[in-house]
Specification:
The protein folds into two domains: about 1-200, Spore Coat Polysaccharide Biosynthesis Protein SpsA, Chain A (Alpha-Beta Complex); about 225-340, Rossmann fold (3-Layer(aba) Sandwich), CATH 3.40.50. It is of the alpha/beta class and about 375 residues long. It is built from 13 helices and 14 strands.
Length: about 375
Amino acid sequence: MMEVHGTGEKEFLEKISKIDDRIKIYEKENEGLAKGRDYAISKATTHYILPLDSDDLIVDTYIESAYWSLRTNKDAAWTYSNSVGFGIYKYLWNVKFDSNIMKKENILTATALIRKDKILELNGYGVAKRYVNEDWHLWLRMLQKGYFPIQMNFYGFWYRRCGTSLLTDINNKKNKENELRLRDIKEEADKIKNEVQAKIYPIQGNIIPKKDLDWENKELKKELKKYRILYILPWIKFNNEYYKKIANLEHKDYDITIITLQSSKYIDRQRIEEYASVFDLTTFIDQEYWLSFIKYIIETRRINKVYIADDVIYKKEILNEINENFSEFNIEEFEYKQDEIAMKKEIDKFKKSKKIHNRVIRKIKRIFKKN
């Protein structure tokens, strides 16, 4: 569900709707954000809703990760990721979910994958008496029912922060309307009688992956022309050799997917996401589904070749699963090490550039003081 304002965005949606007949475009007169969302939800034929404002971004693996997170956690009502603020304000937002904090402060974004039946049960976003944070209002009503979310542990949502916006304007107005808005929120918060615990990833143990996922592999109209490679890694290490190799392959019309089975540093993941789709299984799905998820990626991506690192956990089980389900498949094992020397050089380079930057700032300050 994407809210569109400009003609350019509409043209883009019309273009991609020709690629996949599941994409539908509807037009509605402007009655505000809440009613617009409720109208879109009424038209949706899916079991899940993902609100996304047209000026915000999600990483290319967000929807799949969120989908399988909800599919494998039947009791959860919605799932969301950590977020990156960009624009006039730049930050990383990774606040552990707390239903008590939610009563006083909205620590979640509007963008999440939500079960449609839960939204309809609560009569949608338009229940709010006046323009408020519709998403916060919905989360509070979810918590009243004891419905809980899943917090995926990766930075999948990019929230554009502008100097002026409708929400900023509302929050800055010290007037009667703002007081009423806050009173409405408090009324909903006071109805939450019990603490609600979220399911927060990563959740990792010594469970042998064995549960199956159920999926339908729908072929798209557009033929996939790129050679498709899957890397199965322990985590994304600092390794310039493989970073350059993947970057070079992407430029040569290869499609690259990376699956990791241990947590990676965000800076390393973000660096490689420019050239490959990344799934860190520890961040969104229980361990018992890992083997099945790897099968799902191989089948739906129509993978041509798999590279698997020597030190991947469950390597034997992964290889057995691939060999049993995909005959005559091209698999190559390789040694995957962290490049300690190159990493030290990068760190030293960063520290040096920071020192230079600080010296320049101090020099500018001295010049201004003299003048």
